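Risk register update: the risk of archive-format incompatibility is retired. Evidence:
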Amino acid sequence: MTKDVIALTHRMPDPWTLLAGLLSGGPEKLVDTAGEDAVVRLCDDAGRPLVSVEAPLLVQVDGEAERLLGATAPPVPYWWTEARATTGVEHAEQLAGTFAARLASLAGGSAWPPEAARSVAVVKTEGMTVAPTPAAGQPAIDVLTDQVAVVIQDRPVVAMTAWLSDAFRTAAEAGLGLQIVSPPGTTLSPAVRDHLGTWPSRWVVRDERDGYYDGLTGAVLRWQEGMFAPVAAADATADDPRTPVAAAFQEAADTGQRQLAVTFRAVHPADDRLMIGGALESVWRELTGEPPAGWGTAEPANLPWSPRQMTDLAYERAPEPTWMVVVGSRSRPGLATVRVSRTKAGVEEHVMLMFGYGADEEPPLESLPGAAELLATRHDLQSMLVQLRKARRDLAVPPRFEGPGVPLAFVLGAEEVRRIPGDRAFRTPLSEAPVRLGPKARPALYYPLPGDPSDLSGWRDFEQLTRHLKGA
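Archived output:
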């Protein structure tokens, strides 16, 4: 059962509207705040939270409610208000649904999911109690052990919401992994997938046949020693600790859809002329003909595209790193994550960008050299890798097998080329010579990878190239 309920409203819920929503459990319910007053909570008689409500978010980017919820939102700009019911508490979800229904009624709009917000009547909560702290002390965490923090999500897309971002941060500060549990119909946002690469963090999918499995690897899981961990196969040995793969994970069909992934790193001088996001915008325009649609520090991406605002935010947070998500328009699904950090070398910008294409659409591979040259000549490029993979056009990550991407090109910035001794960077073991980008006296190099896009031979070529560049 879902634990998150969201109100999408034309108008900002004013204090009186929020008060009417908070009275959904009757006037005797206790109210307190958390997260520097950014979260309001309805509590039981002992002061433990029943429902946690985040401050309303003004969304100015079209298509985010459709992408993340499958819901029809009011025209932008509109307000997004999330309420999370405490897991395992009778009637808590009904309480959150009534809160969202009252907001939608008074501020104009709708609630998601519709079935959770059918009534505005007061919910009977006599004797309602919640799980003890510390799990209930963090509104996004449902189970807490000495190994992991577990978050239960029942949304169409598990997104990097402010809730989940806070849960990742809380778990990391405590030295714990984060495990996300969801039903089989759920997908992940790429922004969340990129945060689950460190053991024992993982995506746990409920399954009728195998119980639970890892949505990214397919490994069958069981709850053991305070966390979800892989089950050993019947023929596993100490030297070969193999794990069975869930049947549901292997039921993938080739739909002809593809994703073009561009990962690059740039190191900028730390001066007043720096504009964070300028490199990303250049690549985005080169590959799609338009700029990104919006950005934010969580999903939904709520702000119109603005490199200046991104730069100001990164400057305010320095020397701490800044993570941001960038999204595209409805016509061309696109998503990027940007991580900005201050180092001895300057200001480092690490970008992971992807675009989705249907079976009848061709990725603009002919535009890749031009995009690489823009990065190399104008945006302090260090390196760049381009891959093509069989995956969904909408960029959502399903709990099914999706093969790895096939490398199409690798790029070294001019400074990286200069650091390689002699002319090794200009001589490669590949069948195609590198393409020089930028000034002849200080070129960047674009290495086409001639591997067959229909198999994994591109990785063989890429490994051969990188070993050569390192002098191995």
